[in-house]
UniProtKB/TrEMBL annotation:
Protein name (record): Nitrobenzoate reductase
Keywords: Flavoprotein, FMN, Oxidoreductase
UniProt-listed PANTHER family: NAD(P)H NITROREDUCTASE YDGI-RELATED, NITROREDUCTASE
Signal peptide: none
InterPro entries in the record: Nitroreductase (IPR029479), Nitroreductase-like (IPR000415)
Family: Belongs to the nitroreductase family.
Annotated ranges, domain Nitroreductase: 10-206
Length: 231
């Protein structure tokens, strides 16, 4: 259902991890990208660059990345060959972030009946990232490596605008940093230049409402807990 208020578009957005095959037109995707490009950026630098993949291009890339992902499961030594262009997460986790991360992971796995130690099922679930969760469209976003950290802040605003605008069209998304480890496959595949770094992928389409994974609802810390008021 299309969101008709800003509040509903923001609060109805969630990470969808199963899509149906209904496609999204080039016109609608272009409209969403143009809306997102209204995001603010420091001195209007507009650091975003998008590559929209669908059809055979998406199938081919998914096949290549799934093969790489499977090869790591078979030989964990290979993992170091696949490095993301930037650190999304800290190298050393700490509270309360590690607790939230664990809760998130185990709640999702719990919903899917995946228990601790069930490596094959975990592998299979994480692998769905590299099939864009069955979405007909996956967009890869890149940034110039030479830009500063602030540009990543700008990028986040752009990406959130995209996801919220997608709700206005009745569409669903899943931002995906999981792809970042496979930049060395993805960047040449999409024709990115030497100076480009992969920021993330994003699955786009219509949620498969019959899939239990899409009933996953994530909690948030209330404003009272993260806000300090000073007078
Ligand atoms: C930049 C970014 C990258 C993410 N990467 C992934 C990913 O690779 N795979 C995935 O399943 N979810 C990914 N997520 C989704 C988060 O897990 C999700 O946003 C969080 O758990 C909150 O849930 P919600 O999006 O449903 O509100 C990503 C989110 C963001 C913002």
């Amino acid at each position: 259902m299309k969101s008709s208020t800003v509040e509903d578009a923001i609060t109805s957005r969630k990470s969808v991890r199963a899509f149906n095959q209904e496609s999204v037109s080039k016109e609608v995707i272009t409209k969403l990208l143009n809306i997102s490009a209204r995001a603010p950026s420091g001195t209007n630098t507009q650091p975003w660059k998008a590559y929209v993949l669908e059809g055979n291009a998406l199938v081919d890339l998914c096949t290549k990345v799934c093969a790489a992902y499977d090869s790591i499961a078979a030989n964990p030594e290979l993992e170091k060959e696949y490095q993301a262009g930037y650190d999304y997460y800290p190298t050393k986790w700490f509270s309360p972030y590690i607790d939230r991360r664990r809760e998130n992971g185990w709640s999702l796995y719990g919903l899917l009946g995946i228990t601790k130690g069930d490596k094959d099922k975990m592998h299979a679930q994480h692998r769905k990232n590299f099939e864009a969760f069955g979405a007909p469209i996956c967009i890869f976003f890149t940034i110039d490596k030479e830009l500063g950290r602030g540009s990543m802040l700008d990028y986040g605003m752009f990406l959130q605008s995209f996801m919220v605008a997608a709700r206005g069209e009745g569409l669903d998304t899943c931002p995906q940093a999981a792809w970042n480890h496979y930049s060395k496959i993805i960047l040449p595949f999409i024709g990115a230049k030497e100076n480009e770094m992969l920021v993330c992928g994003m699955a786009l389409g219509h949620a498969d409402e019959t899939d239990i994974v899409n009933t996953f609802h994530t909690p948030r810390v209330a404003a009272e807990e993260f806000t300090t008021w000073l007078k």
